[in-house]
Amino acid sequence: MLNSQINQTHSLSNLLPLHKPFMAGDATTHSSSSAYTLAILRQPTATQKSNATHTRSTSVGKIKAISIPFLTKTTVKGVITIQPTISSAIAGVGIGGVADGVSDLLGRSFLLELVSNDLDSKGKQKTVKAYARYEALDFDINIYTYKCDFDVPEDFGEIGAILVENEYSKKMFFKKIVLNNNITFTCESWVASKDDNPEKRIFFTDKSYLPSETPEGLKSLREKDMESLRGNGQGERKSSDRIYDYDVYDDLGAPDLSLSLARPVLGGNDHPYPRRCRTGRPMSTKDPLSETRTLLPFYVPSDEDFSEIKEVNFGARALYSVLHAVVPTLDAIITDKDKGFPLFRTIDMLYDQGVNVPPPDNGLKTVLPRLVKGAVDTADAVIQFETPETIDRDTFSWFRDEEFCRQMLAGLNPYSIQLVTEWPLMSKLDPQVYGPQESAITKEIVEQEIKGFMTLEQALAEKKLFMLDYNDLLLPYVNKTRELNGTTLYGSRTLMFLTPTGTLRPLAIELTRPPSDDKPQWKHVYTPAWDATGAWLWKMAKAQVLSHDSAYHQLVSHWLRTHCVMEPYIIATNRHLSQMHPIRRLLLPHFRYTMQINALARLALINAGGIIESTFSPGKYSMQICSDAYDQLWRFDHESLPADLISRGMAVEDTNSPHGVKLTIEDYPYANDGLLLWDAIKQWATSYVNHYYPKANLVESDVELTQWWDEIRTVGHGDKKDEPWWPQLKTQEDLIGIVSTIMWVGSGHHSAVNFGQYDFAGYFPNRPTIARTKMPNEDPTEEEWQSFIKRPEDALLQCFPSQIQATTVMSVLDVLSSHSPDEEYIGGYIEPAWAAEPAIKAAFEEFRGSLEKLEGIIDSRNVDPKLHNRSGAGLVPYQLLKPFSGPGVTGRGVPNSISI
């Protein structure tokens, strides 16, 4: 074994002559240069020899030494830090078994090659090679250290890059490489074994360069590195790959398992949609348009897969455990899948006593300590849910009209409420198919509800009427959804009035069923009532609307507008912006873990028969509705917070206002806090962009940036490539707007719709995800009506999710609402490349200071008695946009990225 290792070493080209035969125990460091590649023993730095001419023997110990000229060299020492994987149980220095142990013994762990910024006199790269040798394991921080020495000629020039070859049999996660001449390569990347990928990995220093400023010695490496990430669009991707390419969503269905699980392809003319990362799996035998699925997590480029190095209770791992352990366990013990909760007390028992289940393995209990409790008096375990804060503070908050409306401004989905600007309310759908377009909410109904305040005309003129409008989006799916078992659907509108105290009061709910073959259109308006029957019908109408809002929140406000649309930005960034590009370094923290979470969603959340389809009202049509929303509603130029508010009539442009916009509802907690965060993000982006692009022509002439933005529009969001609203990218202001929007979507937008999920929906009567039964007054039989009259509470409970649906959603929301212990919060961590540039470091510190002030402002707002939408008896303070948080389900904290 040793001989084969030695002979392999000597087979390398340009081997320096040795002064004595190789002895395993004597190999402490290795060094070389482009003219002096591998030397098994380090020679004195002042007496290194040129290889102008040399000879070598093919056998150890018989290499002939010759006389060669002297060159002056400097020894540059390097330290490499490696993060071990969670699954590796490493003893001593052996990382991959016997073969890797021998590699360490011989000092052949990693072959490193420094690259100069300058070319030599012949126009070729100047490089210096050295092998790294294992040094130590720091048990306190769980980091491995390797060291190496480079003998660098004095005329080598500035070091700009390093090439890495992994001699181990397994991929290794490189944290960073630091040289003792104050040069750092921040890697944070997997390096595949050379057995899996013979191409050397390229890392650049922390200094950023625009393409036009790239040093001559690095230009070819800059392009080569990006080419390696683009791939050729062929073949099935392997876990060791780092390929970023595009594909449509053709892997949500599973027709090979059952034709009932076939689903349309999302992406293309029929169902416009953003693109996902290509995996290249074989196509289905039963549906050639669908890609086959796997039981394992879907491929993501290796640098996006942090499952082996993150904390063991990282959200993705916890979510995977819920989907593959908790949910099947609940499914097994709840034998009647259609059984609802017989009493509200039964719902309360989920939090008071929990559900007895067979004892899970220790790993699950470690990952899910909030859910899985040990049972003292039985051999079983208990899945017990924490009481959500909304219910802990006010048990009956879910029942009240004022809370129903308040949560549209300070709840889980503050993205749907819009100003009413035209009357009457009208549908845009074909009346020949869907029935009359005019809403049944009449002027008379409105004025009856706001009698004593003002007329309808005054309310419109003074911007007092607001609504949730899910009529046109849902109506095309009502009849199809009703053919499914255990669910129903309506088109809906919910009208509200802004009171003098700044709070909203519900006026009316309209539910519509379109015509079908045997029935005419059915349309009914419900209002808050003062009789028992009317009051219960009103409560049930609210439950229907909340199921619509829950579906829209999860499918559109959350999945589509954050997770889904970000994936093309991530793919394009890796394909077209070099490691050393400043805009890549600005955006990268906002992409952390997103692709891995998205792949997990395709595996078990948004897939055919997955969590969304089985627990939300639209069922198998959920993702088609999501596609319709993308087609009809999504615009990049409306994704910044100010533009979004203006598009919904919730704000108008006003240069005299602090944020450049004036809110239509002054006490709008999401918008109030969000605008402060948006301003901080945009100011940080402005300082950053203007530093690297002091002149406008630098933006337009940046070839990488131009290709990046072009590919986002024409490929990643190719179904909308011809839309006129796409921003141009010609000036600094254009670039600031684009990157600020991307940063906001990955941080503030996602946090506002994600981390409050358990607090607001963990008690499902507050936000039911599904309405399983139609309204009692929609074409009832005599028996159905009398049953409702006799026990209206039973009708409401039967409309709510079943026991398996409720507990499944609660389990998933518990994980989705959790912050990881190693979360990176916005403004909390300065990237090494930012710290390396004094002007950028100063701008970041200013950004961080703005966010620290934001924390205090939010705290003061939450105790201001004049702000009735965030301060009052039993109200949960609005904290979703507080920048920082501790781990766990806290209902606050803004991570840099969509990391769960």
Automatic annotation (TrEMBL):
Primary location class: plastid
SMART domains per record: LH2 (SM00308)
Pathway given in the UniProt record: Lipid metabolism; oxylipin biosynthesis
EC supergroup of this enzyme: oxidoreductase
Region spans: Disordered: 212-239, 270-289
EC number(s) reported in the record: 1.13.11.-
Annotated Gene Ontology cellular component terms: chloroplast
Pfam families associated with the record: Lipoxygenase (PF00305), PLAT (PF01477)
Localization in the cell: Plastid, Chloroplast
Residue ranges constituting the Lipoxygenase domain according to the UniProt record: 208-900
One Gene Ontology term of the molecular function aspect: linoleate 13S-lipoxygenase activity
Taxonomic superkingdom: Eukaryota
InterPro entries referenced in this protein's UniProt entry, alphabetically: LipOase (IPR000907), LipOase_C (IPR013819), LipOase_C_sf (IPR036226), LipOase_CS (IPR020834), LipOase_Fe_BS (IPR020833), LipOase_plant (IPR001246), Lipoxygenase_dom_3 (IPR027433), PLAT/LH2_dom (IPR001024)
Protein family per UniProt: Belongs to the lipoxygenase family.
Function: Plant lipoxygenase may be involved in a number of diverse aspects of plant physiology including growth and development, pest resistance, and senescence or responses to wounding.
Designated name of the protein: Lipoxygenase
Organism in which the protein naturally occurs: Lactuca virosa
Organism lineage: Eukaryota, Viridiplantae, Streptophyta, Embryophyta, Tracheophyta
